[in-house]
């Protein structure tokens, strides 16, 4: 049987993780409990399921374990957010953005705009960030439909400076 960690142990673990990444690591139990209250102990992304994880909105290495970067997440949304080329709509819900603004954080979004380049097979690439997706077997004629079907509204969030 897995050991059930206390909330305080989870916070210490996440702070340790950020410290190892040489990032800010100052989330306190009091701050986390206030965050849970703000989201009614529900997932910050879907707002439906009970939270299970202390989720970093931006990667730990970028923004650390801080009150302005940690939100509650359910297992389903946590897994979706970790997937490559996830939907930005997960990041962009009003409740989530209002919380970040209340902490003085401004978030911007980079939306991938893929184009097809023909080499031995079609390669999809974002002209903005140069993110690249190899798609063996995809013909140039099918590329536009494929991009629209699988990569509309994908990208990532970042903190504006």
Task: Please describe the structure with a list of short key phrases separated by commas or semicolons.
single chain, 161 residues, alpha+beta, DNA Binding (I), subunit A, 2 domains, 3-stranded antiparallel sheet, two-stranded antiparallel sheet, 7 strands, 19% strand, elongated
Fold and architecture overview:
The chain has about 160 residues and is of the alpha+beta class. The protein has two domains: about 100 residues, DNA Binding (I), subunit A (Orthogonal Bundle); about 50 residues, no CATH class. Helices cover about 35% and strands about 20% of the residues. The chain contains six helices and seven strands. The strands form three sheets. It has a three-stranded antiparallel beta sheet, covered by helices on one side.
Mean pLDDT: 85
Largest sheet composition: 3 strands, antiparallel
| End-to-end Cα distance | 45 Å
Q: CATH class of the largest domain, anyone?
A: Mainly Alpha
Number of helices: 6
| Overall radius of gyration | 18 Å
Q: Which regions contain 5 or more consecutive residues with pLDDT less than 50?
A: none
Indicate the proportion of strand residues.
15-25%
Number of strands: 7
- Whole-number count of domains: 2
H/E series: HHEHEHHEEEEHE
Q: Numbering strands along the chain, what is their spatial order in the largest sheet?
A: 4-5-6
Structural class of the secondary elements? alpha+beta
The percentage helix is 25-40%
CATH architecture group name of the largest domain? Orthogonal Bundle
Overall outline: elongated
CATH fold annotation of the largest domain: DNA Binding (I), subunit A
């Amino acid at each position: 049987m897995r050991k059930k960690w206390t909330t305080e142990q989870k916070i210490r673990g996440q702070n340790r993780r950020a410290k190892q990444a040489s990032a800010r690591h100052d989330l306190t139990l009091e701050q986390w409990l206030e965050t849970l209250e703000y989201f009614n102990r529900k997932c910050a992304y879907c707002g439906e399921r009970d939270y299970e994880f202390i989720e970093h909105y931006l990667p730990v290495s970028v923004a650390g374990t801080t009150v302005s970067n940690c939100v509650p997440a359910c297992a389903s949304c946590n897994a979706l957010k970790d997937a490559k080329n996830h939907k930005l709509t997960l990041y962009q819900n009003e409740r989530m953005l209002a919380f970040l603004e209340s902490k003085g954080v401004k978030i911007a979004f980079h939306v991938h705009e893929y184009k097809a380049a023909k080499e031995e097979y079609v390669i999809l690439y974002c002209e903005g960030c140069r993110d690249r997706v190899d798609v063996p077997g995809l013909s140039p004629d099918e590329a536009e439909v494929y991009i629209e079907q699988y990569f509309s509204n994908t990208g990532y969030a970042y903190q504006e400076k």
